[in-house]
Every structure is written in C-alpha cells, then in structure tokens.
Specification:
Oligomer: single chain
Distance between the termini: 34 Å
Shape: globular
Helix content: 40-55%
Length: 198
Amino acid sequence: MTTDAGARLGEEAARRLARLGRTEILPGLTDAEFARVEAEFGFTFADDHRAFLAAGLPVGRPSTTRGRQPWPNWRGGDRDGLRASLAGPVDGVLFDVEHNAFWPPAWGARPDDPAEALESARAELAAVPQMVPIRSHRYLPAGGGTYGHPVLSIHQTDVIFYGTDLADYIDQESHGAPRWNDASPPRATVPFWRDLVG
C-alpha cells in the first residue's frame, strides 16, 4: 500500500515528465507487475517511485537519451541489464575498493591482503540499503512505506545529489545539471550512500 504523500509525489513527478514531452511513456505498471518485479529482483519500490511507475512507464527513445541508458523497462526490458543496473552502485564501490584504495573508516582497519579487503567490503556492502535505478545512474532507495528521498547520481564512489526528491529530479534532469538554492540544499537520507555524497 502506497502512502498518500508518496503517491502524490510520484504522480507529480510523472506529470512533470509527461509535460516535458521528451520521453516515450507506456501505460503504468499494474499491481501484478509490481509484485512480479519485486519478487524477481528482491526489493520493494519506495512509495513515490512506485506511484511514478504506476502513472506511466517511461522507456525513452534512443534519440533522446544522448548516449545514456534509457529508463529501466521493468515490464519487458532485458532482465540481465536490469540486474546490472541494480548491482551497479555496489559494484562501483567494490571497483574503488579494489582499484582506488577506497575504504571508509566505519569499516575498521583495511586488511592488507587485497582479496581479503574485497571480501570484507563485499560483506559490509551486503548490509547497505538497496538502490533502485530511475534512469541511467540516477537512483532512489528501495523500501515500501518510504518516499521523498533525494535522487542520487551514483558512479562508483562519486555520489552527488540530482534532485531533492523524485519530482525535483525530473526538473533538474531537464536542465542538464542539478541546480540548488543555497539556502535549502538537499538533505542526505540513505545510510552509507549519504556518506559518499560530495
């Protein structure tokens, strides 16, 4: 069951995307389709993300993606591609652990052996919140009963805000780069990922 506030936020994001007229939008996902996707991939959509996808499933057009991945097609898209998008944030952190000496202090002392360090990082990352792709490398956290999280752009351990929430993300993405009012910058909310925001 989606919260009313989460539903309103997701529906507003869908309206903003439709008004832009730059993305092909298919009929929204049904309850049965949400159940199938969530069972298959092992997460639940946040309430605003769910309402956004229920209002219409954006799939994009090759001419409008400018080299970026289109919106995830949860209905009929490539399942391996969807799995790779879901795994992308953790895989990116593991890449930086292995190749760029990334090691947050919260994980304790880094093992000297590279294989042990990677295995220890994998264990730590098993406990971080699942991030769900909105489009390309823009993510919201999973979690039914939650909404209003900032959209994060995640590329390895380079994490930035890309919207104060899902509706704001649509506005920010349409401008090509995020812009904030310095008086009210986004507030990081998702454990672990918020510590990487730079």
